[in-house]
Structures
1.
Amino acid sequence: MLSGVELAVVLGIVFVGATVMGTLGFGCGLVVAPVMLLFVEPQQGVVIVNGLIAVLVGVVVVRTRQHLRMGLAGPMSLAGLAAVPIGAFFLANVAPDALRIVIGLVILAIGVLSLFDIQLPMVRRRFSGSVIGFLTSLSITTISIGGPLVAIYAVAQEWPAQTVRTTLAFYFLVCYLMGFVFYAWSGLVDVETLINIGMLVPALAVGLGVASLLVRRIDQRVFRYAVVALVIAGSLSLLGREFIGV
């Protein structure tokens, strides 16, 4: 169970992650996972991060439900649900060390792509929403990372900003809630995990409150680069721990 300095550090990074997600509509897992995995086993870390994000996106959906368009969110969400049991199976059966390395490499790759603003050409093609919904759900259920992929898709459709934010929140909520069901069925959820999630929820609330103040005032370009720097630093720290023991 998280306590002492570990709890203080994780509370701080959860606050940052909630602020990032509340401002950009994604990115909480990218920010929180590499730090969380320094203190807990990978499987437990993924379940904790995904549980926290489920709470966060649930609040966003309730607050912005008037902007939800089921015609846009439905196909992605259905495809995402199909991937959840596969992702939960992988999470329950992958070796912890290998999982940490995969998470670190994926986070680092996404950080570099974000730094250079690399776009994916396939996101405007027909049926790409269902494909991306499936792949993103598989990724977030297994390693808690994948939000940028579906965010790139949503932004490329040129939907209004609030529609993008609410659509992503609804999609994530569906996938994370179903994922938690399969985590519990696979034996990945215990009392300690639930207590850790409960202790970290206040940091979510504060981060979401700060995000509501920042979203109309902050320079998005500067904010994005700051987040990318944090993501890359976190992934390098996680990989360094695995490869050279730092």
2.
Amino acid sequence: MARVENEGAERKDGVWEPLKDNKADKHAAAGQPKTPQTMSPSYRLAFADEDFLSRKELRPVRLQLELTKAEMMLAEMGIKSTVVLFGGARIPAPGQAPWAARNETQRNSLQAASVYYEEARKFAALCGEYSAKFDHKEYVVVTGGGPGVMEAGNRGASEVGAPSIGLNIMLPHEQAPNLYVTPELSFNFHYFAIRKMHFLMRAKAVTVFPGGFGTLDEMFEALTLIQTKRMERIPLILFAEKFWRSIINFEALADFGTIAPEDIELINFVETADEAWKVIQDFYEK
């Protein structure tokens, strides 16, 4: 006997789904007569009720949604592995005025640091060129999606025709997505914790350029997970050794006994994009 198909029951992926689509219900609800009952917040469909979804009791649901949305979309795009670029939003491109500088000392420091904008750009280009060997499904550049070093990473990938990911986050300043992020791979987050998970879930390497509190947070998150073996060991590469050693005394931690001396070996210091790429090549050749 021939099957009588329900309108809208056949999904775009060709899978039969007899249950009514939630989009159809949402559309139908919007067209209902405006009465005191239908206009009451209690009558809204739960999944379409933004006020309800924003309640503090729904935080676990929102955490899951943030994790799941990016996970599903990256999987659908076929992204299998990434190379992470962390670094400061305030580091300008060469020749640009450092917008965040408040005095001459800061202006000079940030202007000098623009060399690392260029190295981030070159390094991302190297990643993008290598990624082409895997149809841009492996070694895909991922940044925080904002300005500074993040922009340099997305820009370098874009300049060699490679897609790149931007994991933006809602902040009161500075964090509009840069224009070099691949639009289909541009994501926005509310929760730092979920965003950091997505940085590391597919990472083949983590590179860290000079930055502030956010960059330090991201670096130590990755370093702690590797040190405690909560994730596989991958290359952790710090650009600008002088900068990092001036703000973190890794040897003092080992001398004091709060880390093991061999934990310092988890870190690779480099100055150039070519040096960083060689660290990655050597690691995976072994």
